[in-house]
Amino acid sequence: MQVYIAGAGNTRFGRLDGMGAVDLMAQAGQQAMDEAGVRRQDIDGVLCGYATTLPHLMLASLVSERMGLRPLYAHGMQMGGATGAGMVMLARELVRAGRCQRVLVLAGENRASGQSRDGAIQTLAQVGDADFEVPNGASVPAYYALLASRYLHEHGLTEADLAEFAVLMRHHAASHPDAQLTAPITVADVLASKPIASPLKLLDCCPISDGAVALVVSSQPSRHDGHPVALTGAGQAHHHQHVSAIADTLDMGASASARRAFDEAGTGLADIDYLAIYDSFTITLAVLLEELGVCPRGGSAQRLRDGAFGVDGATPLNTHGGLLSFGHSGVGGGMAHIAEAYRQLARRAGARQIAPRRRALLHADGGVLSAHVSLILEQRA
Q1: ω into residue 228 within 30 of 0, thus cis?
Q2: FRET pair for 113, CA 20 to 30 Å: which of 12, 84, 239, 297?
Q3: Which residues, 6 or more positions from 282, have their beta carbon under 8 angstroms from its beta carbon?
Q4: CB count, 10 Å around CB of 338?
């Protein structure tokens, strides 16, 4: 059975004072339903990502009540940054099984305006090992910095190479009206920005944002879509949780996840002409691109400089600006990659529309390159 993304919605990203997590999700959810051309009574499934600013035990039910929905199936999910892709994968399985016909997948929170700096640090630090990492005061940037130091040493990438990805994401975000960071930056700006955890600097890290994203996953494409977008493959892999448990920087789990998705879709990397890759830090993007086989080890920045990842390149990458510039509101930030890939393939990106694309590889990770989810999206018309 074929399953489609039928609509996408998002709020602006940045600091949105006065908007709580449920407010943001309701706004994005209504936009997604409007784009899909469905009514509240048409939604029979709701999947909701966790919100650190609203740790409610029944968040999917809470959002459904707020939006006037009465789903036959609803629950929340927690997979760190992979949550959005994981929810889309689950929504696809619910539709394929006949349990639901139209699933509203949504996430968002007010991390910028509704959480203190210390609160955010304390919450996110918990991805670390409670006995051996958290007591030493490490934060998420520190965990990724440890990984970056080792990866750069082993594979020959430089800090300037990583900076290239921050520059590209900022360039792409400049064309999106809802992006948080749009002012142009240079490699020199990235290298001169405030050190956060060596070798990562401020502009190597995603911003903290308010914002929400929603998608409608359906047994039928939107009647407004002249170019339907199907979910043809999905896969997961979970090789570790903590950075101290990483045994091999050549095998984080991304390649295994993508291989399962490609096998299910009956396609391969050579058929992909759009990339939506998680980018919480510049090192995240470099590692994932290389493990996924998009470029050789240590070769991701050169591929960028060759123009492959630009809007006119062979495989445009995160044309909305990614987490690094569009913004990161937790689960909603990762879902923005899916929304943008859908819109580009469906040719619904408006002024940002690039040349027609047929197949997208979406890859997300949670924790410290821990939980991996890959999706294959294909334009069917």
Answers
A1: no
A2: 84
A3: 162, 163, 165, 166, 200, 204, 324
A4: 25
Percentage of residues in the chain having pLDDT higher than 90? 88
End-to-end alpha carbon distance in the chain: 17
Count Cβ neighbours within 10 Å for each residue of 232-263 and write b for 16 or more, e otherwise: bbbbbbbbbbbbeebeebeebbbbbbbbbbbe
* Residues 15, 232: Cα–Cα separation, whole Å: 36
Q: Give the integer Cα–Cα distance in Å for 131 and 138.
A: 12
Residue 374 identity:
S
Give the CA diameter of the chain: 55
Cβ-contact 134, 242 below 8 angstroms: no
Give, to the nearest 10 degrees, the angle between helix 21-36 and helix 331-345.
10
- pLDDT category at 150 given cuts 50, 70, 90 is very high
Q: In DSSP terms, which residues pair with 7 in a beta bridge?
A: 216
Would you state the structure tokens that stand for residue 313, as one six-digit string?
Answer: 């390149």
What six digits make up the tokens of 44? 């029979």
| Contact residues for 14 (Cβ-Cβ < 8 A; gap 6+) | 112, 180, 209, 210, 211, 327
Strands (E), 78-142: 102-110
pLDDT in tens, 198-211: 999 999 999 999 99
Helix (H) / strand (E) containing 257: helix 254-265
- d(CA 319, CA 154) in angstroms, rounded, equals 29
Q: Which domains does the chain possess? A: 4-115+209-218 (3.40.47.10)
By the 8 A CB rule, do 210 and 178 touch? Answer: no
Q: 3-state DSSP call for residue 89?
A: helix
CB-based contact 372:84 (threshold 8 Å) = no
pLDDT of residue 97: 97
